[in-house]
Prior knowledge:
- The protein folds into 3 domains: about 280 residues, tricorn interacting facor f3 domain (Immunoglobulin-like, Sandwich), CATH 2.60.40.1730; about 140 residues, Neutral Protease, domain 2; about 140 residues, Peptidase M1, leukotriene A4 hydrolase/aminopeptidase C-terminal domain (Serine Threonine Protein Phosphatase 5, Tetratricopeptide repeat), CATH 1.25.40.
- The chain is about 35% helix and about 20% strand.
- It is built from 20 helices and 21 strands.
- The protein has a 7-stranded mixed sheet with strand order 5-4-8-2-1-11-13, with no helix packed on it. A 5-stranded mixed sheet has the order 15-16-17-19-18.
- Strand 4 and strand 5 form a beta hairpin.
- Helix 7 runs parallel beside helix 14.
- The longest helix has 21 residues.
- It is globular.
- The termini are close together.
- The chain binds zinc ion.
Amino acid sequence: xxxxxxxxxxxxxxSAGCSGDKAPDAQPAATPAKEAAVSDRRHDExxxxxxxxxxxxxxALDLALDFDQKQLAGTxxxxxxxxxxxxxxxxxxxxxxxxxxxxxxxxxxxxxxxFVLADADPVFGSKLTIESPQRNxxxxxxxxxxPTASGxxxxxxxxxxxxxxxxxxxxxxxxxxxxxxxxxxTPSVRFTYSAHVTSRPDVMVLMSADNDPAAxxxxxxxxxxxxxxxxxxxxxxxxDLVFKPISGRSGVWAEPAMVDRAVKxxxxxxxxxxxxxxxxxxxxWERYDMLVLPPSFPFGGMENPRLSFITPTVITGDKSLVSLxxxxxxxxxxxxxxxxxxxKDIWLNEGFTTYVQGRITEALYGVExxxxxxxxxxxxxKKDLAGMDQAQQALALxxxxxxxxxxALSEVxxxxxxxxxxxxxxxxxxxxxxxxxxxxxxxxxxxxxDTDQFVEYLKQNLLPKNPNALRPEELDAWLNQPGIxxxxxxAKSRTFSNxxxxxxxxxxxxxxxxxxxxxxxxxxxxVHFLEGMGETLRPEQLAQLDAAYKFTGTPNGEIAMRxxxxxxxxxxxxxxxxxxxxxxxxxxxxxxxxxxxxxxxxPDGLAFAREVFERARPGYHPITxxxxxxxxxxxxxxxxxxxxxxxxxEAPAQPQQPEQPAQPEQP
Length: 667
Ligand SMILES: [Zn+2]
């Protein structure tokens, strides 16, 4: 996925706060961490499940999707593999679900099983304990979701492109799958699945499964996912969706008004698949399709297998942001095929994926494009590290205990992870490192892995090729120490050197760079141009840039998220109405938060931010809503504390609020 640490955790606490329907015989809230018996690296503190005793091998869903009730209702049937001969309980993760009935099958007949749904923990949801004294091979649960399920978003027709039909989509990573299906919601368990889903007949339903491009839209859909997946890759979407192919095995699902633009923007996808296959072995998931979501999708993308979920904000008309497609596709190897065993090792998913993304970008668009993106990523990481707790700066994170696993998701996993692999590539050479990485994917295909396993694999399969290439303390610096090792080589783009020269010359002389120079600049160069401007510019400087480059009103979100904060900070209020329109229309958290963060710094800006948010809120995903709410609440509290006190005694100066960390993004 392309996501945030601090704000995200606040978001989750807020969105998971409702405890929902309670079972008649509720138990006190339990947290998985309190119950953990094992403390090895593979142990997943974010799940109640006990996969060493019994595992879900296959899941069969039979669900009715109801837009009016904002509900999924029906049954989940599990094929179980009992591992511990003494075990007689199946423990599942749930959040905000109503469990109506649990049955077990024995000798072809279904009979009721006893179960207990514990009170909800605000982060992990409710532990569901099912008594299965006969160790049933099949168990069936009848349940329904809550309208506030943290993993589902329901959109009114007005919030879609076409404005005719409603839309819904899931976001299961990290631990939201449990809000729409009772599961062993841990990346260390994989299962195959099938589904029968009914809906109103005028919407198309898709899942992270074998979507048939020719399926009739009739309100009755069946799906099969023959490759075993972890729970966070379970996905569903429904809306006015049509399909257009890109190649024999790849295409785009989108609303009718969007599909042609998306196909054009993503037309290199087949070439991306072929390139990645050449480097890292066959694509093992049959089709690779992309689903373009409404602008409220809170992230850049989500690597749901066979059907990546994609934000429409990367469709700019010039393919300048398609590295997001390279990223989601790369997850078909790193993450979906070889999966982090627990969320504290998320760098194994995201660092590997960001590295592979860079290799795909390089192969299709050249080394300079890949270097520009790496340089932007690395400078973003350095800014984030400045405000980050030391322990969170290691790739191999300490046990997450009672923390929301979404806190593990920072730019460290993505950018430092990828940087580490680039470092290994430089030390060993591509002729050695590429086959090593391919073998890692082959040898762990459809399995989960932890950092210790990777280190062991590296010692056995990479180090012997050149024992002097890597010292143990260097490995330790990357994996276990904070910051970026001093011996790491930063990415350096040639284009950016020219951009720096042009910016410096303009600031000195007020002469804009020659259009022949800027004519070649793509999104990345403009991003770098703006990022180097420092804290503020004078209003006349901003007006000059705006007249020449039309930044205000830009449809390009990467430019908007940098231009508007600079303009607002500098008091260039001409840009404010357009900034407001942008954050009202787009709900991708990474793009809107820097603008809100700038707005709330003045009383007038805070009032404006509140107004815009009220209008935007119905179209925002709960994740973005919670982040904005937390920011507005904090800014409101700081503003009233700073208001002049009537007392004669002077109030002590307010300590400066630390800058909110940038919003890292996953899927
Ligand atoms: Zn990702």
